[in-house]
Structures are given as structure tokens and as C-alpha cells.
User: What shape does this take?
Amino acid sequence: MAATKPAVKPPAKPPAKPPVTPKQDWRSAFVARFPQYAKLVDGGPGEQEARAKFGDDLIDLIQDVAKRPNQYDFTTQAGVDAFNAKVRATKYFNETVESAKAFDALLDVDKADKIRANRITIASGYGDLGLTTKELDDITLVATRRGLSGLALSQYVNSVVGTRARGKQDLLESLDAQALKKVAADYGYNPPDLNEQILASLQGKEYNGEAITIDTFKKKGVALAKAAHFQLAPQLDAGLSLAEIFSSYKDTAAATLELSPESISFNDPKFRDAFGGPNTPPPTLGEWETMLRTNPKYGFDKTKQAKRDAVSMAMTIAKMFGEVL
Assistant: This one.
């Protein structure tokens, strides 16, 4: 009987190596190099806020760069281009304006400085709207991040005010609204939906498929003015409004009829005689004064000057007949 061979023991496994502890946490290393992105990779509320703002795809990309830096080549143009292509493919990059991207990349202290300076400017420029503290803070943040200024800023501010309970009334009483109303009044443009057009213009919205601006009011006003007073076409084409054409006639009427200039308007049918008619040119200022004095509809006979003239005339007649020594 053959002898039984002793069982061969498998070689002993080498002892497991203890896990290698990185010299520095990847977040700390990343933040040391890119401090403006600290909140994006803190693993806490800041990161959740960043994901809500920038999107998961961009935050995941940033974290991947931090965790696996050797997988990215930033030493050659080809490597940089490859990384930029990944960034440009993110939702944030495609849906965010350049000014907002630049703002988002700033340190918090620099963001605060920009917001503080812009807040003062906005509070001063839109004081007539009576912005609340919250409205001002919200508007300033959005305007600063998106780089809004000029017309774009006005339209954004007005769109916020328009959401108030009495927002429409507040907007119609604003300085911007008054400027539009003045242009409309200067051309005699007063359609039934004028206020709706003004509200659309202030908030940067279309009205009946049309963008409404001050130039829109001017063009519509000129068209209506020409239709009503085509004899004034040369002056209107030269850039004058009906109010400007009427200005000298208004001053003459105010002085002659002893009225305040504000009470005299070319929208009053009797004063439109100053514009002439289809077959008659506008009167000279001398002819206009004569019309004001002689046509009863203007009420010159009720003025102090007319009464003095009447007394003077009566005295002159009395002297002629020897009734007054």
C-alpha cells in the first residue's frame, strides 16, 4: 500500500496593507487652488446650493477634476480645449449669460462689493417707485449678476414692481411712465389703450405682437398728426412735435387771453385753428393774435385788457362828441 502524501498547504496570504491616507484631503487641495469655488465642493449646504444653481453636471465635473487631477491635462492646449469642451457641454454654460458666469466666479467679498455699489445706484435711480428693502435687495442681486443697466435694468425693475397688488398704478405714476405720456401728449396720441401700451413698454413686454418704445409713440403720433394736419407734414418730418409747433401760438394765446400756458392745449378744438386747415396755411403770430381778439369763442372780451380797451374807447367817443371835457 502506497504511502499517503502529506497535504500541501497553500502559501500564506501576505498581510493586508493598511489603506494609504492621502497627505491632504482633495477638497482642501482644490480649495487652496480655487478658493472662489470653495462652496461648490464642501460636501454640505454650500455644495447643495451650488448644485441647485450650477447644475449637477458642472459640479460633478469640478469634483472629478479635484478627485482625479491626473486624468486631466492642463499643460497643453489640446488638454485645455478638451476640458473646455466638457464645460461648454454643461447646462449652466449653455443657459447662463456671460456676465452671470463672471459674477459667479468672483470671491464672496468681491460679489458683496459689486452688490453694495449697485444697490446705491438702483435705490437712487428708482426712488420714485418706492422699492421695499426686499425688492431692492432682490433686484440688486439679479441686476448685478446679469449685468443689467440702462433700458434692460428699467424693464426688469418695472417688471418686479408690476407684480405688486397695485403695481400697475405705481408704474403709471412713475417717472418712466410720465416720459412716455409726455411723448404721446406732444403728438396728440391718445388711444383708448394708451395705459396698456405704456405698461407693456415699461416692463419690456410686447403689446399686440409689437415692442413698444418711445420711438413707437413718436412714429404713431407723427402718422396721426399728418393724417389730421397734413399741411404740417414738413415740420413733422423735420422732427418737430405738435406741441413744439404749437408752442409760440400757446404763448401768444396765454398772453392775449390772460390765461396760464398750462390751461391752453392744441387738443382743445378751438385752439387747433393755429395749425391752419386743409386749404389754409397756419396763421402768422400777428394773424393769430387778431383771431384771438376778434373771435368770440376765445373769450377775449372777458379779459382785463378788453375791459380797459372798452373803457378807453368809450372815453374817446365821448370826447369826440364833447361829452367829456
